[in-house]
Amino acid sequence: NVGPDKNYEKLSRSEKKVVRLISQEKSSKEIGDILFISPKTVDNHRSNIIKKLEIQPKKNSLFIWATRNKAYL
Fold it and tell me: How much is the average pLDDT of 38-60?
């Protein structure tokens, strides 16, 4: 798999920031603090990202995707 997931380009700038922070093992609360948004907003971004990237919505699936694609984020 060379280059990021083709669906990565569907993400908004905010969603890309969230994915980058997820790849750095940040929690929703930490991401919220960094981006000055609520943890609930971070969770909304997470669910939108999962849909756009067509990832199975399992526990840690987004984290796994983010760490696998970290070099491209």
Answer: 95
For 12-32, write each residue's pLDDT tens digit. 999 999 999 999 999 999 999
Question: Which structure tokens are listed for 44?
Answer: 């909304």
Burial 37-60 (b: 16+ CB within 10 A, else e): beeebbeebbebbbebbebeeeee
Q: 2: burial class by Cβ within 10 Å (0-12, 13-18, 19+)?
A: exposed
**This prediction's pTM:** 0.90
> What distance in Å separates the CA atoms of residue 20 and residue 70, rounded to the nearest whole number?
7
